[in-house]
Specification:
Strand content: 25-35%
Helix content: 40-55%
Order of helices and strands: EHHHHEEHEE
Mean pLDDT: 94
Largest sheet: 3 strands, antiparallel
Radius of gyration: 14 Å
Distance between the termini: 12 Å
Strand order of the largest sheet: 1-5-4
CATH superfamily: 4'-phosphopantetheinyl transferase domain
Number of strands: 5
Length: 130
Amino acid sequence: MTAAAHGIDLVDFGRIEQMLDKHGERFLDRVFTAREQADAAAVKNRIEKLAGRFAAKEAVMKLIGTGWRDGVAWTDIEVVNNPLGQPQVTLCGKVKEHIDAMGLGPVTVSITHTANFAMASAIALPVNSK
């Protein structure tokens, strides 16, 4: 039986600001889907929102354990809030292929923020777990 999987990541807001200053739209388009970018643009603290999404994506990558190789793209992982505000993960492309090959079900994430950091945790249970 496949075991559950977990990943966690911590992101300093300054890191996201530096990437935006250095790479601008190229960074945004490489890392975030159009929906994620629109969601971040619609809130007061855009950097906080982007950092939380970045941390969630990194946590998912740690969960699958492959790193950013073999055709895996940042935008294979989309994190958006449901109507109640809970972050939800949608996977596609190579990331979805890895999750399926691992025998894992949907990925659940939790994101938290402090004044300068965002942290995210991602878990997935085996498809056949009870």
